[in-house]
Amino acid sequence: MQSLLTIVIPSYRSEKLILSHLKRIPSKYRIIIIENSYNKSLKKKIEKTYNNCDVFLKKNIGFGRAVNYASKKVNTKYFVVLNPDTTIYQNTLKILINSANKIDKFGAIGPIDLKFRKNKYKKNVIESDIIHGPIMFFQTKTFITLKGFDKNFFLYYEENDFFKRCNIANLKLYLVTNSFYSHTITKKNDKSLKLHSTTFSNIKEKNSTYYVGGWHGQWSKFYYLNKYNGFIKALLECLPQVILTILQMFLCFFYNHKKFKFKYYKLEGFFCSLVGLTSFKRSIYDKKNIF
Hints:
Elements: E1 5-11, H1 15-24, E2 30-35, H2 40-49, E3 53-57, H3 63-71, E4 78-82, E5 86-88, H4 92-101, E6 108-113, E7 125-128, E8 135-139, H5 140-145, H6 158-168, E9 173-183, E10 194-195, E11 198-199, H7 203-229, H8 231-252, H9 257-274
Parallel strand pairs: 1-2, 1-4, 2-3, 6-9
Antiparallel strand pairs: 4-8, 5-9, 7-9, 10-11
């Protein structure tokens, strides 16, 4: 089994979750961690303790590009991408491998969320339009043939785009209904230093990433729609939300500066994508000029 699968984990300010993850993952699998916050201390801790782990330090290159980079380091038939806040259960990986071995060629496969485990499925492997982003299982050769995730995305819509290209290439997507995962969703708390799978040093650092997330959500949405539906259709689909965001931005100006700034970033991300600018926005707290 271990000779068939590599585990890839993109990390961004996720030290506690990563270390917790490694305690639960069977040591027989090789693990590649792309550390997007350039945490040298984390790299030393992991590689000192875990012989099966390789940690690559990067500036914040984004989720898709991190996975693309890792895929070129994979020497196994399959690899699985895990978010730091995704929990896998006993036999999840084994069942995914066994299921993949029965399929000649596929775009991606994935387990189902544990909360749906009581659903009655007729088959253990079913076709699906998408695979859930917190855990995605790929054939290495197929992933590389498709050139991985579109590197123009920095954050959001990478999976949508990849699955769309799978559909175009007649590569089916499958859910394995007897394998499970769970994904932690952080409750919104303005005073908390947590955001999704990320832990920050201070509130300003957290807010900076929060604003940038809003920017990329809108940049990526228009880029994706424009790529497959054309400029006019993409504009028409985005326009109602853009108008609403403008109205909300002006209302927030008078009572909530944080929400006003977030709405502004969303609007800016949309217009930057509209005029063809790259997905350049980054948190001011990210490491600079690290390659």
